[in-house]
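Note to self: keep these together.
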Amino acid sequence: MSTTALADKNNNNSDDPPPQTRGSSGGSRGCETQTEASLSSIPHIILLAPTQSYGQTLANSPTFAWFVKDNNSWQMEFRLYEYDETNKQSILVKEIKDENFKSSSGIMVLSLSNLELLVGQRYLWQVELVCDANRPSANPFAIAAMKAVSTPPDLKKQLSQSNNVLIKANLYNKADLWYNTLEIALSSKNEPTLRELKKFLLEQVATGTKIELREQTKLVLTNSKIYQLQR
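Structure:
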């Protein structure tokens, strides 16, 4: 699979930039973290999403993924908003904040099988760690933008003709479907091609962090344990 092709696609939406988003959390001191000293500068949360463009997803299968560095288990809060470009306003359409929704150190993948997005609609999604329920402003959070699209007829036909995950990942890649490509890449086990795709996508995420942290972040992301969440 050509990683160069994917890199080119990620720049296709440069003329359609999303609203101001934070793909990784800021330097909040609200969490008393238990992390290795070498990870102390890496953000608490890193969303696995493009930061300079709207990452695209098929409307009938939204999947979200993010990295949490802290070894402590914190309650998480997930929110999905519809974004109105005209009025520059966001409307909450999905929220998860129950006591069983907790973080682990590594990459979390959230599949919302009971939610279908509106085709053509732009969305913002946010993850927050509730380190201090009494001081919400101290809780680290990150936010990213996405756009829901329908499955092109040609892609639908091609997908129906194969159950091979490598072929499907390649088809999603060619169709510029970031979130669907990432979902398959993160579910890879021992398939070398998928491992390489996952590594490349995570390296793309790392480029959205501060320059001095990029190499360190690449290493941490590519070696992180992956947790599958279902809601």
